[in-house]
Write a structure and sequence with these properties.
Length: about 300
């Protein structure tokens, strides 16, 4: 069954003066996705997010949020999204609950009980009555996310939500996002440059570089598209390198403590083994290595091919 589109971005572009910052990008975010929006510093992530929220006017392109066109039906589009774009500011001498009550009071349609619900969702219900000045950075960030949830959004956009957090704070935010996605049917669009976070949290990613979309898809799909890496356990490393160097399907060879790490075209590990054995090399093992998303990202953004 095709999943419902929650965020559709079609041919979006933006320049500042002569500088093209976002270049004709299209993104598809479906119901239930935890969608990672990745890119090196200055790639255009924040500018894109600001366009998704109507804070920056695009030069060209269309944004639909939950079926509402952002340009033509702004209120419906924006009311169905929650967003945390900068470090949230709170009244430090008030409690978490009191801070959320101030926001709730501006929106009479939000029931009182919602404050407790969202505090529970971000696991701050036991700190609800403590002053925000006693909160850690991670707790403040979670309170910021609670604030975005007050009006029952179907889509939540977070710009670098774990930026500046310690490992424990990052873990808490990560776990909370996964839980909200599962239990509350919230779709997330998260910009980050932390690749490890993406691997652990997101089911889909888009990679932006200098305003261009250079990859989009599931983490699994993107890695499957890439070369394979195997470790070849052998004592005859120098001879093995001489033999493999000439094979067109071998992309790179490095030495490891027990043999060689070889990057090759996907599907050629058996041929690699056969080539070595037929030339008299004693191959003890060929071990497939899981290529990390981090390596994939670095290959791609430092001069690799495009997988859009
Ligand atoms: N209002 C503006 N006027 C001129 N240039 C801008 C403006 N906003 C952003 N830029 C430029 O656009 C480019 C993309 O910036 P943007 O903040 O969108 O990137 P980013 O991917 O979010 O980077 P980072 O991870 O460092 O925040 C940068 O070169 C930035 O200097």
């Amino acid at each position: 069954m095709t999943k419902k589109a929650v965020l559709e971005v079609i041919n979006l572009s933006k320049s500042f003066g002569a500088k093209r910052v976002v270049n004709d990008i299209s993104l598809d975010v479906s119901e239930g996705d935890i969608y990672g929006f990745l890119g090196p510093n200055g790639a255009g992530k924040t500018t894109t997010i600001r366009m998704l929220l109507g804070l920056v006017h695009p030069d060209a392109g269309t944004v639909n949020i939950n079926g509402h066109n952002l340009m033509h039906n702004f209120n419906d589009a924006i009311n169905s999204v929650g967003a945390l774009v900068e470090t949230p500011a709170f009244h430090l001498s008030l409690s978490g609950h009191q801070n959320l009550a101030l926001i709730k009071n501006l929106h009479p349609q939000i029931p009182e009980k919602r404050i407790h619900e969202v505090l529970e969702m971000v696991r701050l219900d036991n700190k609800a009555n403590d002053q925000v000045k006693t909160y850690s950075l991670g707790m403040k960030q979670r309170l910021g996310i609670a604030r975005t949830l007050l009006h029952y959004p179907k889509l939540v956009i977070l710009d670098e939500p774990t930026n500046g957090l310690d490992p424990q704070g990052m873990k808490e935010v990560r776990e909370m996002i996964c839980q909200l996605s599962l239990e509350q049917d919230i779709t997330f669009f998260i910009s980050t440059h932390l690749l490890h976070e993406v691997e652990q949290t997101c089911n889909k990613v888009a990679i932006l570089q200098e305003g261009d979309l250079i990859a989009q898809g599931s983490v699994k799909q993107l890695l499957a598209h890439n070369n394979e890496v195997v470790e070849i356990i052998t004592d005859e490393t120098d001879l093995a390198i001489d033999i493999l160097r000439s094979a067109p399907f071998i992309k790179s060879i490095g030495k490891t403590s027990q043999g060689l790490s070889v990057e090759l075209d996907r599907g050629f590990s058996a041929s690699t083994n056969k080539m070595l054995v037929s030339r008299g090399i004693a191959v003890n093992y060929v071990i497939p290595k899981q290529q990390s998303f981090e390596q994939y990202f670095l290959d791609l953004t430092q001069g690799g091919e495009s997988h859009v």
